[in-house]
Fold this sequence. Notes:
Elements lengths: L1 E10 L3 E12 L4 E4 L2 H10 L3 H6 L5 H17 L10 E6 L3 E15 L4 E16 L3 H6 L1 H17 L4 H20 L1 H9 L13 H13 L4 E5 L2 H11 L9 E2 L13 E4 L8 H14 L3 E5 L4 E7 L12 E5 L6 H11 L4 H15 L12
Parallel strand pairs: 7-9, 7-10, 8-9
Antiparallel strand pairs: 1-2, 1-6, 2-3, 4-5, 5-6, 10-11, 11-12
Amino acid sequence: MIEAVILSSWDHIMGPQIQKLWFVNDCKNNLLSEVSCNTLREFNLSKHNKDILHTDSNYSPDMEVYSIMCGQLLLSEVDSCKPYDEWASRLYISEYKVIIAVVFHVNSWMNCINEIKDTKDTCLCFGTIFKCKDLGFVLKNHMFIDHHLRKAVDVMQNSLIPFDSMMKKVDEIIRNIILELSVLPEENLVSLQNLKYPSFQSFVNSSIISKALASHLQTSGCCVVLGSSEVSVNQVLQALSLFSSQKKSFSSKGTSQISPKPYFKGIFIQESNKDTNKESEFLLEKAFKESLSLTVVDTDLNKVWQTLAIQGSNNMSRYSPSIVNETGLLIPQFLNDLAFIQQNGGDSELFIENFNTFLLSKSASFIKIIDGFR
């Protein structure tokens, strides 16, 4: 169940600064313990000194993990925290912890840690933290948690009352979240009994969920999930659908999605020795026609791939083809090399075939895309 609630800010010199931290001691009895400002202040100043962190009994070992997670969320938003009214919902899955957070911007903030009376233009991260073993519960109840977090954010952004009174309101919202979450597992268990496979973590490794989420956000919510396990495909879709637009979703067997906001294509291939070429060709051609970047998740290989839209010359189709590469390893150099070979009379067909072989070693599903260059 919920482990802690955190409010963190970003300092361009010191990095993430924990502003408020509540540990949940007992969900059912709604018992919270708030870490004192003095402890947080000392932690923020000494967090780069491992000896102090590991020897001082005032610091929970998890505080460092919390700070790092919030820091990465804040760092990704701090320079793009544009308008005052823009909020970013985020789900971060690390090796041991999961955080559901809202990252937002305030024009003015009373910094209770560094004793700065009025800090201008501050980026804040407010979130609930869970253990990784609770990932299935987190995914199922993400929308509920995010809704309540936004209530607290609205109070922090728009409250005209004194700072201490405002934080008391936030504290009430936190206690309400914990109280309502404490009764959800029993309710969810009833609905999960109707599913063929009620356990989330039994089938999908959290690392592929994390990679898929990162890539999915990079490609603006366009995603395809492949796999020979119907359950795994739908579970990945369930996780990714938390950050979805309202696009129609269906699977090749017509499997109903668990997620409340389905939006991408899931492919379930029944044969264990599957040939996904035909299905992948259809999906990649669709991305090609819509001129979109695409995330492709293969649950069998535990791999996440991306397509990269390539801008062609004026005499080419305005819908440029895409090259499929591993996430974070997009290779525009391939096009540059191909153009160089063609300009100098080289054997471009052999070059493409060699590149096909390279892709084949990665995944046989994505070869069709290269034909666009022939």
